[in-house]
Amino acid sequence: MPVIRPALTMDLPGAYRVCLLTGDAGRDGSALFRNPDLLGHVFVGPYIVGAPESALVVADSDGIAGYCLAVADTPDFEAWCEANWWPTLRDQYPLPADATPDGELVGLIHVPARAPEAVVRDYPAHLHIDLLERTRGLGLGRALVERQLAALRARGVPGLYLEIKSRTWSPRDAESLSMM
To answer: Whole-structure pTM over 0.85, yes or no?
Structure first.
C-alpha cells in the first residue's frame, strides 16, 4: 500500500523520474526530452532541497510514485532559487538554448518563470503534484493536497495558486487556479 511521507534528499532520483513520467500533461514525457534530468531540475529539485518542510512523496514497494511539493511564499522561494539553485545549473547548462523541449528548460534555468505579482499578493503559496498511473484513483492526490493545505493554513498562509496543464508540454503554457 502506498504511503505519504516527507520527502528526503535521497528521494530526488525517484521524484525526478516521476516528473519525467508525468511530464507530458500527466503522461510519460520520456520521448520529449533528450536529458531526463532537466524537467526535475526545474520542477522538483528546488522544492525538495529548498522547501523540504513542504515536500511530500508517495512511496510504494516500487519506489517513489508521486509527490506534492509546495512553498508557502512564492517570491521568497524564487529568491532562494536565484541565489542557491540556478547558479550551478546555469554553469552546467549554458545558453544558447534551442527550440526543443530541452532547450526550453535550459531557458527556464537561465530566465525562470516568475509568478505574477497580482496573483502572489493574495495567493502567495503554490504547489506541484504528480502521481504515476499506478497510484492514481486511490485517493492519494486528494490526501496530498489536503495535507499540504492544512500545513499551509497552520503556517498562516492566506492563499495558494495552482497551475494546471491540460495539453502537451510547454513550460509557459499553463492556466492558473487560485484557492484556499
So the answer is: yes
